[in-house]
Amino acid sequence: MSMKKIVMVVTLMVFSQMVGAQDVCFSQNHSCQMYLNPSLAGNCEGSRLALNYRNQWPSMGGLQTMNLCFDQNLEAAKSGVGVQVIAYWPSKIQNYYDIKLYYAYNLQVADEFFVRAGIGGGLNINQFLGSKATLPDNWSDNHQSVGDSTIVKPDFSVGFSFCMEDVFYVGVSADHVTLQADNPVRYVVSTGANFNLDSDDFVVSPSAVFIRQNGYSLLNIGAVVRYQSFEVGAGYNANLTNEMMKNIHSLTLIGGITMMGVDLRYSYDIVFGGVGVKTHGAHEISVVYCFGGYDNGYRNRKRW
Q: What is the CATH number of the domain that holds 236?
């Protein structure tokens, strides 16, 4: 077997182990809030549709992920609902899907202070397309393929958050609470704020996210600055515990614009440390549309 084939096989094995041990982490957390915490479902003006696409480590074949979600604020019922579909493909023979429905209840405890509780439930689908993986001659003389398999299991998440209306929030959540044998529970602590410096034209939004899953710990801190329809931001991602990647960190650069109610953002992760520089980082694109609410100002869109 050539060295190139060996590298491809080893890369595939590494991807398989990582996907089974840790969920994909998005750099644009404010575009996929329900993914971090189900209690943020419906935390918007009216309704919101969001799409995230991430291509991580493109020089190593790429780990592609797509997240499509929709949520609706039910103000009269003090609730919010949402639906989310996540798909990621670590290789040509592996497909992972996570489909969930979300419900969040919003309890007002004081003037402009709220406690939110949310739950998500759905299906986790794991596909292995062994029919597309014909082994090389020196591995199998008869070129037999491994065969296909699909595993479908129920998947649930829970979350709580404390919010100051339009200004600040802090929350905790747990995902995959029924899939511990296959997808270890993912614990998330996240916080964010909106500081209005000049009416709704100039807003600074810092955020921090800590993720713990199966021995992996990731810390993301950053901020987005928005002036009228334009925004720029930066974030720092630190891997805190994983021995294989403990020296790999990244700097995220974000730019975006709002046109006719559509938020368009692009970010790039600059990876440094260890072998991470060979991966060429990660590209991420997000598109967010708030129905009927794009002229209500930055803070009302709850970009945490």
A: 2.40.160.40
Answer for the pair 157, 175: CB distance below 8 angstroms, yes or no. Answer: yes
Are 114 and 105 within 8 A, CB to CB? no
Is residue 135 within 8 A of residue 144, CB to CB? The reply is yes
Considering its fold, how many domains does the chain have in total? 1
| CA 165 from centre of chain | 24
pLDDT tens digits along 187-205: 999 999 988 887 778 899 9
Contact assessment for residue 18 and residue 10, using Cβ atoms and an 8 Å cutoff: no
- C-alpha 183/C-alpha 32 separation (Å) is 20
Q: Label residue 282 exposed, middle or buried (CB < 10 Å: 0-12, 13-18, 19+).
A: buried
Q: Which range marks the domain in which residue 83 is found?
A: 3-301
Tens of pLDDT, residues 236-295: 998 887 555 555 688 999 999 998 889 999 999 988 765 555 566 889 999 999 886 544
> Poorest-confidence range of 47-51, 94-98, 183-187, 297-301?
297-301
Local structure of 16: helix, strand or coil: helix
In the prediction, which pLDDT does 95 show? 87
Buried b (16+ CB within 10 A) or exposed e, 172-182: bbbbbeebeee
The backbone torsions φ and ψ at residue 145, rounded to the nearest 5 degrees and listed phi first, read: -95, 165
